[in-house]
Specification:
The chain is mainly beta. The protein contains 6 helices and 31 strands. The chain has helices at about 1-25, 25-30, 140-145, 165-175, 365-370, 410-415; strands at about 35-40, 45-50, 55, 65-70, 70-75, 80-90, 90-100, 105-110, 115-130, 130-135, 135-140, 150-155, 160, 180-185, 190-195, 200, 205, 210-225, 230-235, 250-265, 275-280, 285-290, 290, 295-300, 315, 325-335, 335-345, 360, 380-385, 390-395, 400-410. Strands 8, 9, 12, 13, 14, 15, 18, 19, 20, 21, 22, 23, 24 and 25 form a 14-stranded antiparallel sheet that branches. A 6-stranded antiparallel barrel has the order 26-27-28-31-30-29. The longest helix has 22 residues, at about 1-25. The radius of gyration is 29 Å and the shape is elongated.
Length: about 425
């Protein structure tokens, strides 16, 4: 009995000791050191260390060098490649940290207001229409099982690309009392159905009983341009159809220059909006090849300059972003890009692509006075911290227009088809 009590007392002492050790600052410093560090050529990475611990480079290639004192270790990334850092205590290895040095990569920040025109794959069904027939009101499209958000891609074996492609088939089938063979694309996959057009008793034409649309237009903000490939990213979020609320499946699209004419200021519960128009010449400056949760992407055909930061900047990976001051580039009047102060309230180091990586807050008095915070049309505004492009503005908080979400830049680059993790080429022996 006494032996059991002694064992419990000793166990309790050991548990308390273990917990105390975990809260001991040198141990905390050690636990905080990541197992993997990723940096770009020319960048430094500094971390605090437990006083008795020393760091050495694992292999003798030239990718990294170390500088250290009693309190910290500073890792300098010299050359693209892989290496490792060994942490030792009294000459005994206690932790290995893998170090990946990425090739120096820079993109030109945007901030310009752009006009966006998306052409859909086929024609998009945005509503049902009742046809007044002799037998009552009916929607042929609804009877055929076609739903809002569906995309009509083929009729009678013919590819449908725009609204004007549809009408001749409808009238011909109606006059011959025939059904149309429809190929419909839906989120769950493609399917076929038959649709018999009906004639409105007050009109001569036959109708599908569907409201359809073949393109969508709006405005947003350019985020970045790769100076080498001219690939760009903008908006930072997917473009959804205003009626169906579903992402628009893009066949192709164009971007043009845009001019902000006025601002509807945001307030609690009522997000504001940039009111803008496409530039008068409607000159196409780039194409759109992808509409994804991370924005729109394509290639620029014409140079776009912001007049504030037109030189390429390094980028920061999600784990390199920190809470604190930052800036955004955006347009609030005409086509002039301006720099405004914001605060990174929180940031999540993401290992996998996700849209909501940062919470940001507008603190610039000039921007707050003009817009009330983040407004529609500001999505895509590049976020810059410590001279690095770290992401883009995406969404506003409806109940607090001064705050919203940002997306990390590495996920937008990935969607644009830019591989920042490209491995170095083997050197000849």
């Amino acid at each position: 009995m006494k032996l059991d009590i002694i064992r419990k007392i000793i166990g309790g002492i050991l548990l308390v000791s273990l917990i105390s050790v975990l809260f001991f600052k040198p141990i905390q410093d050690y636990l905080d050191i990541p197992k993997t560090i990723t940096v770009f050529e020319g960048q430094d990475y500094t971390f605090q260390k437990a006083a008795p611990v020393s760091a050495t480079v694992g292999s003798h290639n030239s990718t990294i060098t170390l500088a250290q004192d009693q309190k910290s270790v500073s890792l300098q990334a010299k050359e693209n490649g892989q290496n490792e850092m060994l942490l030792e205590f009294a000459g005994i290895p206690i932790k290995k940290v893998d170090v990946q040095v990425l090739k120096d990569f820079r993109v030109t920040p945007g901030g310009q207001s752009i006009g966006v025109k998306l052409n859909t794959v086929g024609v998009l069904v945005v509503g049902h229409h009742l046809v007044s027939t002799e037998d009552g009101k009916k929607s042929p499209g609804e009877l055929a099982g076609i739903k809002i958000g569906d995309i009509i891609t083929e009729i009678n074996g013919n590819k449908i690309e725009k609204m004007t492609d549809v009408a001749p088939f409808v009238q011909n089938a109606g006059q011959n009392s025939e059904a149309l063979d429809m190929v419909i694309s839906r989120e769950s996959g493609k399917f076929t159905t038959k649709l018999t057009p009906l004639k409105d008793k007050g009109e001569k034409s036959y109708k599908l009983g569907l409201y359809i649309r073949d393109s969508a237009a709006g405005i947003g903000t350019m985020t970045f341009v790769d100076p080498k490939s001219k690939k760009y990213g903008a908006l930072g979020h997917v473009i959804s159809d205003m009626d169906t609320k579903k992402p628009i499946v893009v066949e192709d699209g164009q971007i043009v220059r845009s001019t902000v004419t006025s601002i509807e200021k945001g307030s609690n519960g009522d997000p504001g909006e940039k009111l803008a128009r496409f530039s008068s010449d409607r000159e196409i400056v780039g194409n759109i090849t992808k509409n994804s949760p991370f924005g729109i992407f394509g290639v620029l055909h014409k140079e776009l300059r912001n007049g504030v930061l037109d030189k390429p900047l390094p980028i920061a990976l999600s784990h390199q972003v920190k809470e604190g001051p930052a800036k955004i580039l955006t347009v609030v009047n005409d086509d002039k890009v301006e720099e405004f102060n914001i605060e990174i309230v929180s940031t999540i180091p993401q290992k996998f692509p996700a849209t909501k990586g940062m919470v940001i807050k507008v603190v610039d008095p000039k921007l707050l006075d003009k817009t009330g915070g983040i407004v529609q049309g500001m999505s895509g505004s590049p976020i810059i911290q410590d001279g690095k492009l770290i992401g883009a503005v995406t969404h506003v908080f409806v109940n607090d227009p001064t705050s919203g979400y940002g997306v990390h830049i590495e996920w937008m680059l990935n969607e644009a088809g830019i591989n920042i993790y490209e491995k170095p080429k083997e050197k000849a022996s």
